């Protein structure tokens, strides 16, 4: 393992509807913002990792280069479900850590506003005759006939399974997790929604997949985020101000699902997250109690609960008690999703992984404005993508 | 000339007949079970499988009530994960009111089959779900 890798510059666009900006406009805004934030230009960047899911075959990285600088460097177009942004970041980190270059950039971008239910939302029509099809020899579409493939339904079951195993969950408990994140987002000017919902409004809203009502589901929106990473040696050649604002990447981990019983019929989002967290804490040499804030993948309110446990923010089985204690509110012992989370800040898929890192880094720099977690020195960013991939990054404030 | 079959299962791991049941491909090396056609075992990479019948009764390990779905999917419906003697099965719950007062975690359920439609050739497809036991 070589020396530390640092975040030199990082930027995110406002999340929300951007009808007048295309995918490359958003990616450019994030990338140019991150370069300016770090005080460098495309000429300094030795590798580009571009994350995008919905237009993954269109060479987003090269399109971005055409708009902001065709410098001939290697480009990796990355797609890894909802962990795409974290994967792009990790790709840039790996290149720097391997010594291939001193400076790398990762961009995550997605245009998603107006998209409906993402998976299972395009069920094929039944054919005129019952012909076996695919790996299950199905004679007709399965989604809706043999369980559900829609994400709100999958993650609803993930939360319900946790409740079955450990007890203490209810529709209201999950709704209160959403209440917290929407309340947090009122302090975030870059969030898609900055509306504080009452518990009654959340529980009384349109039911998508019990117990997830509409405000308990991640918000489809447009957005981009980008990070410039730099080797320890190269950072030391830069100005004192650049060194002071640099954020140390103490851990960068990517995992996939190991086989567990039942993972083929309901994705196991737990084991790969626990594995990623354990590896990240070991890499960083910090423990959950050292964290000042956590941005985790609350794609649905039901998901946030299980990740309290998976990220070891509580003892195993203790997620309900952790939430009930108030610890995960922004004034609590373990603030989680002070950005508003995916439910309120929004979830432009490939941007999310970098945006979660941006949120943590911004607090560590003391630049988070009204929502600043005072004195934050260590933070964790987590994303998960079904398929499955999990990214965990632990960041630390510069020693200076 | 043989007559065309008049009934087909929705998926090939549903076995019809007098006592309809589900079957799984079980890895002979490690015992991991799968419903789909396998290239190798996801658990141990073994390539030998046997076909085993699953228990037709089980317990609900997780559920959701889907109210928004793709066009053509009748809603609301109850989707669930059912533990059938240690093997997890994905299925809809049927013959139950689709609301949280009538579905419960841990609820005992039993496999049931039902017709899902007849195609242009007159063949009936048969689906499965789990009903309260």
From TrEMBL, chain A:
Gene3D superfamilies found in the cross-reference section: 3.40.47.10
GO molecular function terms noted in the UniProt entry: acyltransferase activity, transferring groups other than amino-acyl groups
Coiled-coil boundaries: none
Thiolase C-terminal domain mapped to chain residues: 271-396
Thiolase N-terminal domain: residues covered: 5-115
Protein name per UniProt: Thiolase family protein
TrEMBL record, chain B:
Domain ChsH2 C-terminal OB-fold positions: 52-113
Entry superkingdom: Bacteria
InterPro entries: ChsH2_C, ChsH2_Znr, NA-bd_OB-fold, Thioester_dehydratase-like
Occurrences of domain ChsH2 rubredoxin-like zinc ribbon (ranges): 17-49
Pfam families with a match to the protein in the record: OB_ChsH2_C, zf-ChsH2
Protein name: OB-fold domain-containing protein
Organism: Iamia majanohamensis
């Amino acid at each position: 393992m070589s020396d530390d890798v640092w975040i030199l510059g990082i930027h995110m666009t406002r999340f929300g509807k951007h009808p007048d900006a295309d995918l490359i406009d958003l990616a450019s805004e994030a990338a140019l913002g991150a370069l300016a934030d770090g005080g460098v230009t495309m000429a300094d960047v030795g590798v580009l990792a571009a994350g995008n899911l919905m237009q993954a075959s269109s060479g987003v990285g090269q399109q971005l280069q055409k708009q902001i600088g065709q410098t001939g460097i290697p480009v990796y177009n990355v797609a890894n479900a909802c962990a795409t942004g974290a994967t792009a970041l990790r790709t840039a980190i790996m290149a720097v850590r391997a010594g291939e270059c001193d400076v790398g950039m990762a961009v995550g971008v997605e245009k998603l506003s107006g998209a409906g239910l993402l998976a299972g939302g395009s069920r094929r029509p039944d054919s005129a005759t019952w012909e076996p099809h695919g790996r299950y020899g199905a004679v007709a579409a399965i989604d809706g006939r043999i369980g559900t493939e829609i994400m709100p339904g999958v993650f609803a079951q993930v939360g319900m399974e946790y409740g079955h195993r450990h007890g203490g969950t209810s529709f209201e408990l999950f709704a209160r997790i959403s209440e917290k994140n929407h309340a947090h987002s009122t302090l975030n000017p870059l969030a898609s929604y900055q509306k504080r919902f009452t518990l009654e409004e959340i529980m009384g809203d349109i039911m998508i997949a019990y117990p997830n009502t509409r405000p308990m589901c991640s918000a489809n929106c447009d957005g981009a985020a980008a990070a410039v990473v730099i080797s320890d040696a190269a950072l030391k050649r830069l100005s004192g101000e650049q060194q002071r604002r640099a954020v140390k990447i103490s851990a960068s981990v990517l995992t996939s699902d190991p086989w567990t019983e039942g993972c083929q019929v309901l994705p196991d989002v737990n084991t790969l997250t626990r594995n990623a967290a354990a590896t990240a804490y070991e890499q960083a040499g910090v423990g959950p109690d050292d964290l000042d804030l956590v941005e985790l993948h609350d794609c649905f309110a039901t998901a946030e609960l299980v990740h309290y446990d998976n990220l070891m923010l509580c003892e195993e089985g203790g997620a309900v008690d952790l939430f009930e204690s108030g610890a995960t509110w922004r004034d609590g012992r373990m603030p989680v999703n002070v950005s508003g989370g995916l439910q309120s800040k929004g979830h432009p898929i490939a941007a999310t992984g970098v945006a979660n890192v941006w949120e943590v880094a911004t607090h560590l720099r003391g630049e988070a404005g009204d929502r600043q977690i005072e004195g934050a020195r260590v933070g964790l960013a987590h994303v998960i993508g079904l398929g499955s991939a999990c990214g965990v990054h632990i960041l630390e404030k510069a020693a200076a | 000339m043989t007559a065309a079959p008049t009934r087909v299962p929705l998926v090939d791991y549903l076995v019809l007949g007098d006592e309809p049941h589900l079957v799984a491909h079980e890895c002979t090396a490690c015992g991991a079970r799968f419903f789909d056609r396998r290239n190798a075992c996801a658990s141990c990479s073994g390539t030998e499988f046997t076909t085993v019948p699953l228990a037709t009764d089980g317990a609900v390990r997780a559920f959701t009530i889907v109210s928004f779905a793709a066009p053509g999917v009748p809603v609301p419906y109850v989707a669930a994960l059912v533990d059938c003697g240690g093997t997890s099965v994905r299925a809809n719950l049927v013959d139950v009111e689709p609301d949280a007062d009538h579905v419960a975690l841990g609820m005992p359920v039993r496999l049931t089959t039902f017709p899902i439609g007849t195609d242009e050739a007159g063949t009936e497809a048969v689906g499965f779900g789990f009903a309260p036991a």
